[in-house]
Fold:
Amino acid sequence: MTSRKPRILVISPAGRVVDHDNVEWYHNTHDQLLDRYFNIGDMVVFDSTLKLIDYAEVDAMEIVNPTDADIERYKGYDFAIVRASNFVHNGANFHRAAEIIEKIKIPVYCTGVGGQSADDRPYLLNAENLRFWQTVAASSNLIGVRGTFSAEVFYHNGIKNVEICGCPSIFRTRNPNLQIKPRSPIENIAVSLRREVSSTYTSDVAGYLSMQRNLLVSADDRYAITFTSHGEQEEKAFFFKDAARIERAEQAFAESGWFSDDNRDQMRDIYMNRHFFFLKVADYDRFIRSKDFAIGMRVHGVLPALANGVPAALIAYDSRSQELADTHAIPTLKLADAARMTAQEMIDSVSFDAFNKLYPLRYEKMKFIHEANGIPHRM
Structure:
């Protein structure tokens, strides 16, 4: 690698890049924005990945229908990165990416990718996904993975050049000396929700939703709260004050029990008046720095809070969230324990000693992954 800053391609970006390394969501019409689900956590990890790399320009790789001209143009880039995300499973679709990588013959790197499985049994990748990850592994010295489970998935599928480095989002402020200090008094808190759920995430869907509703209500009873939503259509209807969609959302909430007779007025007030949603990652940074604590189900509500020095705790609900919590020693509450606690009890139970001890080591490991692959970085 020369001293010239590299031109890089991104496989599966999440948002558009503005002002060099700031990511915001794609331009959408009002209807597209409100009627389509998209997880803005993907936008945060994309932004965080770019924040760590020292590059000249970035472009997205067209992996569905690339033209011959696209493929020829890609040969002029220095390397490609796979956006760090929940991609190591058979539901992922990389379309023609493996074919393109083989044709353009530039390195492909990944720093923080993770696996997903409904249980702990060995997970076999299908031929298409295995081919893609074998192609990435062959062009990388190391694949940086989210945690132990993800490393085991790769190992079980014969890919051995992996190293645990965690998630780029916790390093997004590029502070090697970050230490989280508890704040007192705690007055303003952010609560992140994840209403989207299936049996892939939990065997107790009703309990999963009940716990979050109780957390939101008990937090509102004790603190000045802002609840953060992360892409669900019904929540966006409230945030953008779309009357017709709000009416439909309230009906759906009543039918599911999310809004019940004993909490409807309070929940509606929270949704209408203490609700934050973002389409620019920088907006979340500014928002979360004004809070004393962040808690909830969203990994990308908690990780960027910690990166900004804000005390935060995660309620782990699946293998993905637990794996990240374990990798970084993030203060974590099990779903069953959280269901029995008020928001204040959750916050009072948290310690950052393990996180503070481990963080510098994880920071150095993420830096090492970049250097092992020859990726110019800003860490």
The CA atoms of residues 281 and 363 lie 21 Å apart. The domain at 188-351 is CATH 3.40.50 (Rossmann fold). The longest helix spans residues 353-372.
